[in-house]
Amino acid sequence: MEKLKKYVSVKDEDHFYHQGAVELLIFNFLLILTILTIWLFKNHRFRFLHETGGAMLYGLVMGLVIRYVTKSADVESGTVYECEELKSGPSTLLINITNQVYEYQYKREINHHNVNGHQGNAMLQKMTFDPSIFFNILLPPIIFHAGYSLKKRHFFRNLGSILTYAFLGTAISCIVTGLIMYGFVKAMVHIGQLNQWEFHFTDCLFFGSLMSATDPVTVLAIFHELNVDTDLYTLLFGESVLNDAVAIVLTHSISIYSPKENPNTFDAAAFFQSVGNFLGIFAGSFAMGSSYAVHLTKFTKLCEFPMLETGLFFLLSWSAFLSAEAAGLTGIVAVLFCGVTQAHYTYNNLSPDSKMRTKQLFEFMNFLAENVIFCYMGLALFTFQNHIFNPLFIFGALVAVFVARASNIYPLSFFLNLGRKQKIHRNFQHMMMFSGLRGAVAFALAIRDTGTQPRQVMFSTALLLVFFTVWVLGGGTTPMLAWLQIRVGVDPDEDLTAKAASQSASNLDKNTTKAESAWLFRIWYGFDHKYLKPLLTHTGPPLTSTLPEWCSPVARLLTSPSAYGDQLKDGDTVYIINNDELTENCELSAHVPVPAQDSTGSIQATGKEDIQEGDLGLGSYKLQLQHIASQPQKNSLA
Amino acid sequence: MEKLKKYVSVKDEDHFYHQGAVELLIFNFLLILTILTIWLFKNHRFRFLHETGGAMLYGLVMGLVIRYVTKSADVESGTVYECEELKSGPSTLLINITNQVYEYQYKREINHHNVNGHQGNAMLQKMTFDPSIFFNILLPPIIFHAGYSLKKRHFFRNLGSILTYAFLGTAISCIVTGLIMYGFVKAMVHIGQLNQWEFHFTDCLFFGSLMSATDPVTVLAIFHELNVDTDLYTLLFGESVLNDAVAIVLTHSISIYSPKENPNTFDAAAFFQSVGNFLGIFAGSFAMGSSYAVHLTKFTKLCEFPMLETGLFFLLSWSAFLSAEAAGLTGIVAVLFCGVTQAHYTYNNLSPDSKMRTKQLFEFMNFLAENVIFCYMGLALFTFQNHIFNPLFIFGALVAVFVARASNIYPLSFFLNLGRKQKIHRNFQHMMMFSGLRGAVAFALAIRDTGTQPRQVMFSTALLLVFFTVWVLGGGTTPMLAWLQIRVGVDPDEDLTAKAASQSASNLDKNTTKAESAWLFRIWYGFDHKYLKPLLTHTGPPLTSTLPEWCSPVARLLTSPSAYGDQLKDGDTVYIINNDELTENCELSAHVPVPAQDSTGSIQATGKEDIQEGDLGLGSYKLQLQHIASQPQKNSLA
């Protein structure tokens, strides 16, 4: 370690005046460039590069420029000082240098091997912002939006399959990836690439769990634009939303409970502790997220002040995330279910103005956050200072990711098809296999801890896999759709009606249709419709008619006057589900004051957006709600 | 300086999992509390505490709790280490402590006297966030919103007076405050309170300039709610918006060009350099802000994708701020005029959906940012670690601020009344005098640099003055209005018509009415209407009719096809101004799909909002646009 004495002035003259402005400007510039590119592509119906891919590309170029054009002006680079007086690192260090006291803030512990010449490049440092910003600020709006825009009708029809893919599939994917990576790590040890640092099986599992978070934002955007078969869309969308949550909790559980004593043997106690931990964290986060969502009930008469309402809505949803994180639970899961619950109950209590405001606000925040993250991923390839690219590990990861995806989709689809009336077609399975893109969540999980060498290898590898999947798989979506002959230009409404008709023609037993929606959820839905909705919102049947006789004083108190009009039909849950959705959708459509192209435009721009379901009403409503009617080029690919 | 060796572990177990979440949660919690309080107050028509005052109060309580409940767990507090090897502080310090390398990031240079026991309280440290966050993230949306919601009609009618108050008045206020403070500083030196640190005249002027930024957000909110006389409202609103910009540039100029050699003598060269600097920075920032605003012209056909449009709009406006800061200009001025220009030109090019989205987005961001800042101000009283409260200085500042405001308002009003047809009434002058609240901008300017003792005294004093003015003056607005017998419950439209009628009755010469709007701006307005509007937007007369004959090929190319319908009436600028406003307002109203109370609610909530002008159309439009019609309690106070 050198002991150089250099005279460097930290504060330049302008320091006071543009702290942080340049870095933010760079991001703004990249985002503006991205938006203009998207616009150009959309205008020319060019679908091989999605906005996120574009953002990543621009980030990459900018990172290259920053790294090699802005020279490290700080001569202190890589100099390590000995401070004999200190025995450990305090969070704030006051240092007396030539009779001036300087305050230094603890950033991180770094390994000796990480000390390099780029360490002191102030620009690189500023551009690599704190991972906690990802988790606390950029990720919540994306996940919340996914939950908030999740439309229940198609989702619940495929709920069993979605849950299977999300829970069982992610677990399979995690374990398969872990095992394959462990094989590759063993191979690396064998050829001597891994002599200086250790790589345990739990590390491999950790990598497996973070790589199991799929994020097919590109694919879904294209599906949406082309109106691909609704079942396929819903399966993919539902899987990707829940799968993020599962992967995050899995990563969390693995990182906490790894058997420290002998990391390579299987420790049954630790394993079951991990499983228990997983279930506990998942349930806790779910409960916390949902409980935050029901704060804004029909009794808070905030409707008169839409600004306050929107503000409260926004802050409560964010608080759901933050509280869960602060309590040691998983914020992402909390905010996801907060979004779902908000959409289900709170949304009905909002004033029409607030309904629109919140929808647009979250849509906008989702759009910005997503593009910032993808820009940042591009930047990180060159600005992150401690990359370790190991070719064998990267190759192994590439193989593992595909094998894991395959062993998730194909076997599970086979078993699901045994129970499903509406089979998941082989080509759909191929498409789902192909749509295993990795994105923001995998990246965020990987960047959270890059202190040790195994974690740095994982981070660099995860980053490359994100690039690869977004550009190659994302870009190949349209050709793949054509090649697999998957229907495009499907009107989701007609599609459903047609299916229902064909079913009722071939099978007159109504119960079959019922069994097709998840039976467990039908019970829940009935309970929800009879008790929760009337309690928490102004809709649904009056509690006086659903609760037993002896509860009637309480029931009368809790029932909204407007609920009495809507009397309960006896137990027909299919009717309830459809009717419920219909009411909501019509309400939504009535408050979207935009002409046809605009609405479509916004859908195209946001990827996971689901507004087109505003059009899913019964036939009689179709004349009124025609803002999707002018959808261009039907069946252009099929 | 002690040389203790303590063993402190920086990273607790949960460190990895809730970085930053707790601090954000505290802010969220405070904001939720504030919103609920506002709602309660609004419901009970309680006007003595505005939302900003409430936010400050909650922040104060929370700050108290954080300071005295969370004990400083870090034993290293106030320990200064000697590092003999270093001669200056590098931006990143790598320190080898017991064979582990820790990375420390440069935070600031601190004076020896600032080293105290609270230095190491991690919680306090985390809550006092970087001043650059104020400047780069929280302030821009507030200022932009002020510019964007600035309605031209009343503003231009009072333009001369507003400019006089904003430029001349702020300069007077700055100098008067500076002189009075210099007197108090001399007195402090006399009684021996100022022996250890120096306080120059330029420091006093600096304090004067930062205390000249008035922010009557509370007063304006109440004015809006009660429909106080429009002229008074416009004068105050216009003054406060421009005055922030002037005060910021003034502070900047003073902080750069202080005669370093002998700070107490008057240096004519440095003075004129400062004046030149002021003008240069102001003009440069103005130009930069406006140039960013015209990017989204009618030729960028982004209307089909409202999400992209909104995104681009947002990013461009923010970039105006950041570019100006990065270029050494003043971002606030740039973003203010960017907002004004966006509202004037770009707004007309937006799709109807985007018009609403941008309005609501900026309204929401303004609301959040404002409340965060006021919460933070409350927090800062207890969490900021280097307060210096000097009673004499604080008393001096209180006196200075009032004397300065008086010597701004009364003499200038006197001179303005010499030229104005519509005199500024004596009671109006008292009300303006009374509305000299200090807020976010003064605080942000003061917190930007708290390195030296004079700056710390200024910061602590500025903070107390903000508290005092917001709570005492803000709370006293309603009684003051009643006491000064100022008209409330005025319909802005009727008001204007009545005034116009009384004028045309007493004076048939049309030119007098014309002369009342600033004559300089009438020339500009004509130019704008004839050339700029047709060039940049789809409205206005076609360029083919306004440009000379020989330009016609270019003119035809640049004119929007929709412009040909609107032929130029010959030179009647009054008609143009009114007509222009009318078109805009009707357009706006037509796209606000909210019922009566909602719209009013949002106005009340945002303070500086100006939506009610959407109703300022001619009589014939009044039947259609009745969303303000149900305004409660007219003339309740008069």
From TrEMBL, chains A, B:
Q: Topologically, how does it sit relative to the membrane?
A: Multi-pass membrane protein
> Which keywords has UniProt assigned to this entry?
Antiport, Cell membrane, Endosome, Ion transport, Membrane, Sodium, Sodium transport, Transmembrane, Transmembrane helix, Transport
* One Gene Ontology term of the molecular function aspect: sodium:proton antiporter activity
Instruction: List the Pfam families.
Output: Na_H_Exchanger
Annotated Cation/H+ exchanger transmembrane domain residues: 33-483
Q: Does the keyword Hydrolase apply?
A: no
**Which InterPro entries does UniProt cross-reference here?**
Cation/H_exchanger_CPA1, Cation/H_exchanger_TM, NaH_exchanger, NHE-6/7/9
Q: What is its subcellular localisation?
A: Cell membrane; Recycling endosome membrane
GO annotations under biological process? regulation of intracellular pH; sodium ion import across plasma membrane
Q: Which domain of life is it from?
A: Eukaryota
- The record lists the membrane-crossing segments as 20-41, 53-70, 133-150, 162-185, 205-223, 269-290, 327-347, 367-386, 392-416, 428-447, 459-484
Extract one GO cellular component term from the record. recycling endosome membrane
PANTHER family per the UniProt record, alphabetical: SODIUM/HYDROGEN EXCHANGER, SODIUM_HYDROGEN EXCHANGER 9
Family (UniProt): Belongs to the monovalent cation:proton antiporter 1 (CPA1) transporter (TC 2.A.36) family.
What protein is this chain from?
A: Sodium/hydrogen exchanger
